[in-house]
Design brief:
- The complex is a heterotrimer of chains A (about 400), B (about 325) and C (about 350).
- Chain B is α/β, with parallel strands linked by helices and about 325 residues long.
- Helix content of chain B is about 35%, strand content about 20%.
- Chain B contains 13 helices and 14 strands.
- The radius of gyration of chain B is 20 Å and the shape is globular.
- The N and C termini of chain B lie far apart (about 60 Å).
- The radius of gyration of chain C is 20 Å and the shape is globular.
- In chain C, helix 6 links the parallel strand 3 and strand 4.
- The chains are: A alpha+beta (about 400), B alpha/beta (about 325), C alpha/beta (about 350).
Chain lengths: ~400, ~325, ~350
Amino acid sequence: MPSLGADMEAGTLVEWLVKPGDQVKRGDVVAVVETQKGAIEIEVFEAGKIEQILVGLNTKVAVGTPLARIRTELEGPLGAVTAAPSPAAPAIPLAPPPLVRAPVAPPPPVARGAARARVSPAARRLAETHAIDLSTVTGSGPVGEIIYSDVERRLGQAVAPPEKKRAPWLDLDAMRAAIAAAMARSKREIPHYYLEHQVDVTVCEQWLTQRNATLSPDSRLLIGALTIRAVALAARRFPAFNGFYRDGKFEQAGAVHAGVAIAIRGGGLAAPALHEAYQISVDELMAGMRDLVQRTRAGRIRSSEISDPTITITSLGERGVEALYGIIYPPQVAIVGFGKIVTRPWVVDGAIGPRSVVTITLSADHRVSDGHAGALFLAEIGRLLQEPDKL
Amino acid sequence: MEQVTIQPAVTEITYRDAMREAIRDACRRDERVFLMGEDVGRYGGCYAVSKGLLAEFGPERIRDTPLSESGFTGAGIGAAMAGMRPIVELMTVNFSLLALDQILNNAATVRHMSGNQFGVPLVIRMATGAGRQVAAQHSHSLEGWYAHIPGIKVLAPATVEDARGMLWTALQEPDPVLIFENVMLYNMTGKLAQDAGPVDIDKASVRRPGRDISLITYGGSLWKTLEAAAALAGENIDAEVIDLRSLRPLDDATIMTSVAKTRRAVIVDEGWRSGSLSAEIGMRIVEQAFWELDAPIGRVCSAEVPIPYARHLESAAIPQVPGIVAAAKAALRKS
Amino acid sequence: MPTDKPRLSRDHMLDLLKQMIRIRRFEDKCAELYTQEKIRGFLHLYDGEEAIAVGVIPVLEKRDRIVATYREHGQALVRGVPMTTALAEMYGKQEGCSHGRGGSMHLFDRATNFYGGNAIVGGGLPLSIGLALADRMRGSDIVTTCFFGDGAVAEGEFHETMNLAALWGLPVLFVCENNLYAMGTALALSESETDIQRKAACYRIASETVDGMDVIAVEAAARRAVHAVRESRKPYFLECRTYRLRAHSMFDAQLYRDKAEIEAWRHKDPIVRFQVWLEANHMVHADDLTRIEADVAAEITEAVAFAEAGTWEPVEQLTRFAYADKASEPVSEVLWNK
């Protein structure tokens, strides 16, 4: 099949004008090919006898496909094939796409004193949002540029870009490194003070038992929902524990986004936000917690969930110890810890009896609050837990 | 005996007169040079640039043509290929479209198509730009389009010094050079040394050094940009103004050095915004100076509309000083 | 010396015949190579029109200039562009006459003053008057010949060129190869006035029509015309009535013309007609033909070998030739401070 045009890739044979046994000479028209432009007669460039037709009528074949065999006068055995490309055709080297000129080398750097880091606009904005000092971030780009992921790493978590699902695996090493960086910074920069308070939560347990009897297993409440609600309500009344310390000053947060510390199998730890913990009901909070835990362990948290908590609550549950003193996650200013619930002898109405007691701790930023406020805050949490139906 | 330093005398001259001097000078120095175009001879030139030259050099060298843009531009190309140094004058860029086939398919392409056997040392001059209420078909700024074509060079002299000095250098080029003269500049006066001579045609010029922002422009917009820079200085913003001078090739080095210093750029381009030369310059800044930027690159261009007749509309359609000032302030995050 | 009568010597006749056969066999080989994808892009063959190139070009002097169209293999070969470099050019090899940058439609050759190879219909016309303008301004006696087809006559550039050539008195020989079709559009469907030389006459250009299938007639007319241009320094217009025996290009189903019409014109094939006439006048013998065919075949084989052996230009050199390579360009002799 001959090439008849720059854009011809194939042709359909629609008529043979010769048959086996016919003599042909150079220039004779031997067949008609249908192309996108219409029927074109094709000529032969050899002289000889048609020996065999190789392609039938109404067959579409690619350019270069042999159509017939011609025995030429010059050769004994089968001669050249009609309209086939020469087998010795040198391969045309595939030209690479037009060379893209490498960008001109950057101009001689203007004297900047301490060489100013190259930071992408996206990275710059993220660093600003989280008060990250760019001089503490190492750029991963080829000329030391700091890009978005460098700041993310610094933040404490390698997270997916907002609203994008991440692959369901977690880079625990990176997470541990990020936690290390964040905790070291916290200890370095935040003057912590610590308070503890023991609270009788028997009423909560009774309330939960009663409540859960009416609920299906997957919507049953855990005491964590109540404690987080209590902390959220208390935080509204004691705003010095709900917000961010940045640029040398405290910014009170309008809403309460409760950071919930969640352990991840393999040694990871995350504290994503339960948004609007003040506004939502206990049931909604419970559902939110379940969702957070599940997604956290699957590695599918959104970056807004990581960066939004205004106060964090940590708990070691049943297997933990009686008191747990957390380290504040900067730029937050407080973290509330719940130990495990133990049965203790307790005085109620003048009599001693067994009660479920939990030790609540507060680690707070002394730049923002002092022990007096902290004590009132903890006391408020304890008080709120005595009336679970009001949470 | 006192040593006396003789300063070259400086005159005040119009852009038009400077261009005429350039043509006259070229014709005197090189007998291969001749001027060809509509009304360049008897009429003295649509913008009076060639007034008086016919009397001085005669009709063979100051050659009036019929209204055949394609024909006489092609003739200029052929004459250049045969060893002459023609200056083809297309009355305005608006009419150059009739010669676009000759410019692109012949002038820009012959050297390449012939495998370097034939070159086209041709200069084409054209008036360009809006501002005289001559409406949609007479007000184009298509320098950016021409700057898209490999094989030619594109110049935009904006000062009397460049009007005087670019032509000779362009005539020495072995490849076609297009010179765009903004119509609003012809009457402009400036100081010029009496012995002013040829200037380079491949470098941009920093017309006003500054620290806070790079205002990059060419042609008729240069003076508005300088005026905007003066206004910005009054608000404590120190703008650096770059006159591109050559649109193809662009002087990347000067542009990037400036942006590395100021970290902000606004490009002022009288072409229509979409796909204009400002887009090319903006992209080059992204390619070569991304890490220096502290703000998005801005631009002030003509609005997406054929240039209207009514004065206030025409005025609003093309870049003006307040728009340039506003764009600069936006880049500096000030309102 | 009267230059307007062709020399009817046997040698000259055989030379005319050989030139035409040489073009025909070369074009035929190009067709074959194209079907094998050795030649790519567009290919426009000259079959049937050989008498024009062969009749006109040998009349020109070495110093004269030629501008042609994209159907220019015939003109290039007769003018003396080597068959080797012409074919290598069509292969895209850097040994080609345009360094592999142009292909079939852009054969250029400085040594023979061959200014292409122009692919825009009508685009070469303004170029030709420019070349002539330069010669006029320098007072030389060089003649520029511009080949173009009937299709170009519809373009504005044709009219602008005719006007300028006549108005300014430019030494151009315009040769219109009227093969009755502009690609697929018949002349009668394209022009209100199909008598093309009349159009030139309307611009006050001396013009005539000649049978483009008769090489002797073409030569005679060309001698008259070139002489006139060289002496008068005014343009001349020669309309050569001819026919394209092959399609417009390789990829053309020829839906626009009758097989019967093609057959009728095939009977007027310039080579066959001339050969028959020569045989009848005992100016050519069988062994002349054998020798001619053998010479031509050998030259073509050599050209194919040359093209096949040619090399590809390195991709790194891609952007060469957009602009002059300053290092190798001669500095302009006219300095500023002269």
